[in-house]
């Protein structure tokens, strides 16, 4: 393989400082187009070249590059990676998860693992890896427990017998998040060993990466945007922005959120809905006798396994709702899958809480969303049929747009993903949907659809056209499974002074 030196100039002083730092965890946060991704890509390659040699003269490096979904990893992060390290250098394996780019030269053996987090099996793979270092791209979209767990996976390869790690740690890059996010808290009060680098506003005199952007880039993208969008994506400040299509456009904060907290009615049971995964969450609601649904509270756990979540939830309910029984506890049906210890999530929840948990009747996301939408659209005696207590901050921000369908750039205009984006708001909203399903929300939607689609018999026919096989003579023998009708239900650093890759 021919030797090729690729030189890189950091986008500005802040990006340069980010690359020069040796902190265990480094965060680079700034506006759109500020060169964050390129700085991280080049830093990965540079640190690989700086890795010490083993006893056999080889530099061994294994790095994980992480993004919240497979589609974003493939369409954005990997595209940026390929600008600086094209696929023809080494072997790029696209047909597996994680995607692997294996670069081997006479002195470097570098494995780059591109890891998405939208499937539980991918998360399990990530948290079992032995890595040199890692990079989380757009870390604001990643649960903090991934970062916390990752701190124990880096510095593990190469082993001491192979020479050990010259540098190990975690790179983080991101646009600013909202002020409720773990990222904002991290920036406000960084732990020991963490270094924070904040790039200036794209409209200011110290803006970075302007030489690599179109003329008047920030002025052009500011046109038609509201003040909060400009604050986050151009000025690089923390704030709240709706980035896609609302999941619940009928939600009105002034209508569905009362001015004061609604207390639970005595003698009426509570319904719990729970979502598992990396950020377990529980929605606590009460169906009222007049037909209204009152969401009393939310309970969201960070950095928690399922046992700790169950124990913390039981304690929280005892402290805050001692006078109300829980009459239904419904969770994500995926919790029926057995884990490495052969236990299911439902078995663990039943063991560590005083309630009997059961899986929701459906995991079909469209049906779940419609069930909540139906409640939002109802009025009961002049009052909204769905009310959300003002203290439910994560649910409230999710309704306002944090829980949304992400945009997809398409040739014929803007389209959106069919399922809501996975982020810090999706977990508690999934939990809310399971709770509404648990009180019969799915039946409301299905009955409505049945009424719309009620069939009428055509005249002049000597057989029922709605028979799945036409005339009765075509009916399959009794006991034969025939088609979907009988199928089992399925859950639904200086200028040009970074020689970064020598081959």
Structure description:
The radius of gyration is 27 Å and the shape is globular. An 8-stranded mixed beta sheet has the order 3-4-5-2-6-7-1-8, with helices on both faces. The chain has 503 residues and is of the alpha/beta class. The protein has helices spanning 13-20, 36-50, 70-84, 120-126, 144-150, 182-188, 217-222, 227-233, 253-256, 306-320, 345-352, 365-376, 393-402, 426-438, 441-452; strands spanning 25-29, 59-67, 91-93, 99-104, 108-116, 133-137, 169-174, 194-198, 245-246, 270-275, 281-287, 293-300, 326-331, 357-359, 379-380, 383-384, 386-388, 404-405, 407-410, 413-416.
Structural topology:
Blueprint: H1 13-20, E1 25-29, H2 36-50, E2 59-67, H3 70-84, E3 91-93, E4 99-104, E5 108-116, H4 120-126, E6 133-137, H5 144-150, E7 169-174, H6 182-188, E8 194-198, H7 217-222, H8 227-233, E9 245-246, H9 253-256, E10 270-275, E11 281-287, E12 293-300, H10 306-320, E13 326-331, H11 345-352, E14 357-359, H12 365-376, E15 379-380, E16 383-384, E17 386-388, H13 393-402, E18 404-405, E19 407-410, E20 413-416, H14 426-438, H15 441-452
Parallel strand pairs: 1-7, 1-8, 2-5, 2-6, 6-7, 10-13, 12-17, 13-14
Antiparallel strand pairs: 3-4, 4-5, 9-18, 10-11, 11-12, 15-16, 19-20
Output the keywords:
15 helices, 503 residues, alpha/beta, 20 strands, Nucleotidyltransferase, domain 5, single chain
Structure at a glance:
By secondary structure, the chain is of the alpha/beta class. It has 15 helices and 20 strands.
């Amino acid at each position: 393989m021919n030797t090729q030196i690729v030189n890189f100039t950091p986008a500005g002083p802040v990006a340069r400082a980010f690359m020069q730092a040796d902190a265990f965890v480094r965060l680079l946060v700034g506006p759109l187009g500020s060169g964050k991704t390129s700085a991280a890509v080049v830093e990965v390659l540079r640190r690989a070249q700086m890795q010490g040699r083993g006893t056999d003269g080889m530099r061994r490096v294994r790095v994980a590059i992480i993004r919240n979904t497979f589609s974003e990893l493939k369409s954005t992060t990997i595209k940026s990676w390929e600008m600086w390290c094209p696929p023809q250098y080494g072997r790029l394996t696209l047909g597996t998860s994680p995607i692997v780019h294996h670069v081997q030269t006479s002195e470097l053996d570098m494995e780059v693992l591109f890891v998405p987090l939208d499937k539980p099996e991918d998360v399990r793979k990530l948290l079992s890896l032995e890595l040199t270092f890692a990079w989380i791209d757009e870390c604001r979209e990643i649960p903090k427990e991934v970062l916390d767990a990752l701190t124990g996976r880096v510095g593990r390869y190469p082993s001491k017998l192979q020479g050990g790690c010259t540098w190990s740690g975690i790179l983080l890059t991101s646009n600013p998040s909202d002020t409720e996010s773990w990222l904002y808290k991290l920036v406000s009060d960084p732990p020991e060993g963490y270094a924070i680098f904040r790039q200036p506003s794209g409209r200011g005199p110290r803006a970075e990466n302007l030489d690599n952007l179109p003329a008047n880039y920030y002025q052009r993208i500011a046109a038609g945007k509201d003040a909060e969008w400009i604050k986050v994506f151009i000025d690089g400040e923390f704030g709240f922005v709706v980035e896609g299509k609302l999941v619940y456009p009928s939600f009105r904060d002034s209508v569905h959120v009362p001015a004061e907290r609604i207390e639970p009615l005595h003698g009426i049971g509570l319904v719990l809905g729970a979502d598992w995964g990396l950020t377990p969450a529980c929605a606590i609601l009460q169906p009222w006798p007049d037909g209204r649904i009152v969401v009393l509270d939310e309970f969201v756990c960070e950095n928690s396994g399922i046992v700790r979540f169950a124990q913390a939830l039981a304690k929280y309910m005892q402290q805050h709702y001692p006078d109300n029984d829980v009459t239904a506890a419904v969770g994500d049906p995926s919790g029926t899958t057995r884990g490495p210890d052969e236990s299911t999530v439902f078995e663990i929840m039943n063991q560590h809480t005083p309630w009997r948990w059961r899986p929701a009747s459906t995991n079909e996301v469209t049906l779940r969303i419609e069930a909540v939408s139906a409640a939002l659209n109802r009025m009961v005696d002049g009052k909204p049929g769905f009310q959300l207590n003002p203290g439910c901050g994560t649910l409230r921000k999710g309704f306002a747009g944090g829980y949304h369908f992400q945009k997809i750039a398409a040739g014929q205009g803007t389209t959106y993903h069919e399922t809501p984006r996975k982020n810090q708001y999706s977990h508690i909203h999934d939990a809310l949907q399971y709770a509404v399903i648990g009180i019969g929300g799915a039946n409301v939607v299905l009955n409505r659809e049945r009424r719309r689609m009620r069939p009428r018999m055509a005249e002049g026919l000597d057989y029922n056209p709605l028979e799945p096989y036409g005339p009765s003579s075509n009916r399959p023998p009794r006991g034969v499974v025939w088609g979907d009708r009988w199928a089992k239900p399925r859950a639904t650093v200086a200028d040009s002074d970074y020689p970064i890759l020598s081959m």
